[in-house]
Design goal:
- The protein is of the alpha+beta class.
- It is about 35% helix and about 20% strand.
- The protein has nine helices and ten strands.
- It has helices spanning about 50-55, 80-90, 105-110, 135-145, 150-155, 180-195, 200-215, 235-250, 255; strands spanning about 1-5, 15-20, 30, 40, 65, 70-75, 90-100, 165, 175-180, 215-225.
- Strands 1, 2, 5, 6, 7, 8, 9 and 10 form an eight-stranded mixed beta sheet that branches. Strands 3-4 form a two-stranded antiparallel ribbon.
- Helix 4 runs parallel beside helix 8 (about 235-250).
- It is globular and about 45 Å long.
């Protein structure tokens, strides 16, 4: 995962990028690369909790985007709109992107004709995740469909409605939170630790924040990203990543020259 912080919601310039590495300890925590960006390392025992604590202790005047490191596609032109939407709607605590390969997002994407029912069917995921999270074949087919044509990808760009609220746990593959609200995430993580004896940010900052703190959250449909795989989809991880690698070599050859 990585945290991207945006100082001004109207700009896509990233002030700092925080990198995680589970092979390092938090004692190494804040370092700086040659561009002056903060670099974080992930202490495995506490999961990602230290980074929520960092922003609790160091309030940030802007929008913070938490993105999984296996995010394989981001419609970057929509980042300013995404950040601005959260910034201007103070009643919203957490705002998820419309994620390709996320159960609830897939349902709403299909509702607006992004995914034909003749290809795959994604019922309402009343646990926020649905069966897609554990279905590697369905994930592979969804990635294949998304990558098969520019026309298909454009179908996922949904402006109306821009926002769908959810009231349960959701995968936090790509979510935005205002810096001033990060203390709430840390509070929820500590409550989760007390209740369940584990550091679990996903449930803490979604379902727990909803039921214990009355926080409102939802999906911003115009902000489209794609997430590679979940743990139960790993049996087809290589095939899914190959889809993206081949697409990048073909469609983004100039950008990835010498890398792929």
């Amino acid at each position: 995962s990585a945290f991207l912080s945006i100082k001004q919601p109207s700009s896509v310039a990233m002030e700092e990028t925080l990198y995680f590495d589970k092979n390092h300890t938090f004692q190494d925590a804040i370092k700086h690369d040659n561009k002056g960006r903060a670099v974080f390392y992930w202490p495995g025992r506490r999961g990602y909790s230290e980074y929520y604590k960092y922003y609790t202790d160091n309030p940030y005047d802007g929008v913070i985007i938490k993105a999984d490191d296996d995010t394989v596609f981001v419609n970057s032109t929509m980042v300013p709109s995404y950040a601005s939407y959260l910034w201007n709607h103070k009643e919203i605590f957490l705002l998820s992107a419309s994620v390709v390969n996320q159960g609830l997002c897939a349902h709403y994407q299909q509702k607006h004709n992004a995914i034909p029912e003749s290809y795959e069917i994604f019922p309402f995921a009343n646990n926020g995740m649905g069966d897609l999270q554990t279905n590697a074949t369905q994930a592979f087919r969804l990635h294949s469909y998304f990558l098969s044509s520019e026309e298909n990808r454009k179908r996922f760009f949904i402006r109306d409605p821009a926002f769908y609220e959810f009231k349960f746990t959701i995968n936090v593959n790509f979510v935005a939170i205002r810096g001033e609200d990060m203390y709430i995430t840390w509070d929820m993580i500590l409550k989760k630790l007390k209740l369940e004896k584990r550091y679990y940010d996903e449930g803490a900052i979604t379902w727990d924040a909803i039921r214990f703190a009355g926080m409102r959250m939802g999906i911003y449909m115009p902000m489209v990203v794609a997430h590679a795989t979940y743990s139960h989809q790993l049996k087809l991880e290589r095939q899914i990543l190959s889809l993206w690698t081949n697409w990048a070599k073909k469609e983004k050859a100039d950008f990835y020259k010498g890398i792929l």
